[in-house]
Specification:
alpha+beta; 2 domains; 3-stranded antiparallel β-sheet; 5 helices; 6 strands; globular
Length: 148
């Protein structure tokens, strides 16, 4: 693992422990050159899971892409990394049940449902992009559903 400070490729693990109900290994590392300490997380990769796009094409699942979209919606909101990681872990567990892959619409809808429970502002932000609101009326309609 490369040191984030000096880019030295030689680092050593000084501590390992389980995290997130045993689904992740948290490792404390130390650079052998500059002595900087940093943390890494090791998790199971969603091997070979494919996402079926609206146009029918398939692409490999990317946790990074999902997490980036969620963080854009959660910008400057009181949401923690642990909450986002837990939310994605639960959704991935659900999606991995289908061996044929998962539809992008399912991913989008599941993210909206999870954000609705986590933070209403993040939900509205995500929904406004995901559903491509055309005008203020569509936005107000969605906001009205949320407030019911």
């Amino acid at each position: 693992m490369q040191c984030p400070k000096c880019k030295n490729p030689d680092t050593k693990v000084i501590d390992s422990r389980l995290a997130e109900q045993g689904k992740v290994i948290r490792r404390r590392r130390e650079c052998e050159k500059c002595d900087r300490r940093f943390t890494t997380f090791e998790r199971l990769e969603m091997e070979n899971m494919l996402v079926k796009k609206k146009d029918g094409s398939m692409e490999p699942y990317s946790r990074t892409k999902v997490e980036k979209g969620i963080w854009i919606a959660c910008g400057k909101r009181p949401v923690t990394q642990e909450q986002v990681d837990g939310m994605i872990d639960r959704m991935e567990e659900k999606w991995s049940m289908n061996k044929k892959g998962v539809a992008s619409q399912t991913i989008g809808n599941d993210i909206m449902d999870a954000l609705k429970k986590l933070d209403h502002i993040a939900y509205i932000r995500f929904a406004s992009v995901y559903r491509s609101f055309k005008d203020v009326e569509e936005f107000k309609e969605e906001l009205g559903k949320l407030l019911k």
